[in-house]
Specification:
The protein is an alpha+beta fold and 464 residues long. It is 40% helix and 12% strand. Helix 16 packs across helix 17.
């Protein structure tokens, strides 16, 4: 939930704030550096997908829904249900050229005996060789043959013709989702656990496979989930004379994605990662910066429909702006903006902002008098008095690495940097081992999971 007093963003002024009185020259320099680094967290440019979302049929990061009700989608997720992606019905008839072209028919018979991908698909079906899975495997084989023989793509591959096919199957193809009329009952399909797409089965499989793989990779590398269900988009313009509409998501609900094999084919579903939605605070910040407006707060009792109405009312006086009823499952990232707000000076006691934290102050401003150096000198590591400060080494370490460990064991705050291959993770491993040997507790964090795994692996190799 977002409070109505959520701090506003003025990127033109954030970096020029006056230095609070009482700071030493080094503290003032450190605070200026922190302000500069903080501004790098803020991205209010049009390259940010949270401000300027690009819809593309070729994208492998997003899938759009049709003929669903936003309140029903969020309500079922909030109830702990998993929602399954549903494609358009497959084409019922084979194209005429596949029935009459002798070259194609001969190639098809040969491919059914030799195509490795087709045979592997049949092998996974087991006893279901006459069912839906087998039909899809053959359809995929036929499409590969069409391409290999230089035949034109099958029909219904473009959005216009797929929209016609959808309507023939009682599916409303508009990406602007329908509104539930108070005097009409919901379609049965609006109340089930399926999410309708405007994709044919093979298209949906390829797209969801890419989204699934990207979700796993992001979690493994960063430990952060970036997959969200976006409900509602603001269609807005940068200026009154602009002719290019921009689209920004309004509500974001974190979800996971799961893949299972059902009757020989993959079935993809999403489930809720949290119980609440979030508004797009990046958009709220950009609107305040450019137009001195904010998105309305999201109250606990607000459903998606209720919130979209609140936004529409808030922008009613702005020509051409409107709320679009799009729903997208895709990858979004806005953790950096949350960090930007967390680093706001007013959120920290003492009038110094984050510099009031002693660890941050020592790291950015140095420790001690103004005469102290910012770079550390190496110790005479063969000196018994120095060596005694390091209770344990579990991997090889040169003099600079041992010197860093000595500083840590003396309680100093420091930054260790160096190009790849210079032993940073090795040094961290030794620091953790030495701290544990001294009966200290260690918290080790990293932006990417790979960095955590390297150190964990090194520590594991040294267990006795």
């Amino acid at each position: 939930m977002v409070d109505d007093d959520f701090p506003s963003v003025d990127a033109d002024k954030e970096g020029d704030a006056a230095t609070p009185p009482g700071l030493s020259p080094r503290e003032a320099a450190a605070q200026a550096r922190i302000a500069e680094l903080r501004m790098r967290l803020l991205d209010l440019t049009n390259s940010n997908r949270l401000l300027n979302y690009k819809f593309s049929d070729r994208s492998r990061r997003q899938v759009r829904l049709v003929d669903e009700l936003p309140d029903e989608l969020i309500g079922r997720l909030a109830d702990g249900k998993r929602l399954v992606f549903r494609p358009l019905p497959e084409l019922g008839d084979e194209p005429q050229d596949e029935r009459e072209e002798d070259t194609f028919l001969l190639a098809l018979e040969q491919a059914k005996r030799s195509d490795e991908e087709y045979l592997a698909a049949l092998e996974t079906l087991g006893s279901d060789e006459e069912g839906e899975g087998a039909r899809r495997a053959e359809r995929a084989l036929r499409d590969r043959l069409r391409k290999a023989l230089g035949m034109p793509d099958r029909l219904l591959r473009d959005p216009i013709s797929k929209a016609v096919w959808a309507r023939q199957n009682n599916i409303e193809p508009s990406f602007d989702l329908p509104e539930l009329h108070p005097r009409k009952e919901s379609k049965e399909e609006h109340l089930d656990v399926f999410m309708q797409t405007l994709l044919l089965p093979d298209e949906m499989e390829r797209l969801l496979s890419a989204i699934y793989d990207q979700t796993r990779t992001t979690l493994q590398e960063t430990g952060v989930n970036t997959l969200y269900l976006a409900v509602g988009y603001l269609e807005w313009y940068e200026a009154p004379d602009s002719h290019t509409p921009l689209y920004a998501p309004l509500l974001l609900h974190p979800v996971d994605i799961e893949r299972k094999i059902v009757n020989g084919t993959y079935r993809y579903s999403i489930g809720s990662e949290e119980t609440v939605m979030e508004i797009n605070i990046t958009l709220s910040g950009r609107l305040y910066k450019d137009f001195h407006r904010r998105l309305p707060p999201l109250d606990e009792i607000d459903t998606p429909e209720a919130y979209l109405r609140k936004v529409q009312a808030a922008i009613a006086d702005v020509p051409r702006w409107r709320v679009r009823r799009f729903v997208v499952i895709g990858h979004f990232s806005f953790a950096r903006l949350l960090m930007f707000y967390d680093l706001e000076d007013g959120r920290w006691p003492g009038g110094k902002g984050v510099l009031g934290n002693s660890v941050i102050a020592d790291l950015f401003a140095g420790h001690g008098t103004a005469a102290d150096a910012f770079s550390a000198e190496e110790y005479a590591v063969d000196d018994p008095a120095i060596a005694a400060k390091v209770p344990l080494l579990i991997t090889d370490a040169d003099s600079s690495q041992v010197s860093a460990i000595v500083d840590v064991m003396e309680g100093k705050n420091l930054a260790i940097k160096g190009p790849p291959g210079t032993g940073k993770s090795q040094t961290i491993t030794n620091i953790i081992a030495a701290a544990l040997a001294a009966e200290k507790t260690v918290l080790f964090v990293a932006e990417k999971m790979a960095a955590l795994n390297v150190v964990k692996h090194r520590l594991g190799e040294c267990r006795t």
